[in-house]
Design goal:
135 residues; mainly beta; single chain; globular; 45% strand
Length: 135
């Protein structure tokens, strides 16, 4: 969905198990979002982004791509700047961030160099979030 300010909102994809577990924790699909604006990408998982939040400036996005492969866990977790924010193993996209952006995971400040998301519309997100190709 695109609004008049030029932003697009995307839904994180959740499997049945994640919905059952994360909805009572106020981190379910209805409480999580990814918004692409002309200035960057805003990610929130949970009410107020309590589980995970980050604002990645457009100038820091080095590229966005679809990824495949097994995912063995769901939620928000990472190590050394590589973060996975997902509710399923479907629709995975990876955002490369340089310089690293700031974020928060359960209130703790983190650095985001790479962010993998599970999205309901991954191809549309890749198109919206990728930096423009220089002519």
């Amino acid at each position: 969905m695109r609004d008049i300010a030029g932003s697009e909102e995307f839904t994180l994809d959740y499997n049945w198990f994640s919905r059952v577990v994360m909805t009572p924790l106020l981190a379910g699909q209805r409480r999580s979002r990814v918004v692409v604006t002309p200035d960057g990408v805003d990610v929130r998982m949970g009410v107020g982004g309590w589980a995970f939040s980050s604002r990645i400036p457009r100038r820091s996005i080095g590229g966005v791509e679809r990824v495949t492969g097994p995912v063995w866990s769901w939620g928000a977790h990472g190590w050394r700047g590589r973060w996975l924010v997902n509710g399923s193993g479907r629709g995975l996209v990876r955002v490369h961030v340089s310089p690293a952006a700031r974020g928060r995971c359960v209130g703790i400040p983190v650095r985001v160099r790479e962010l993998t998301l599970s999205l309901a519309e991954p191809d549309r997100f890749v198109e919206a979030a990728n930096p423009p190709n220089p002519a």
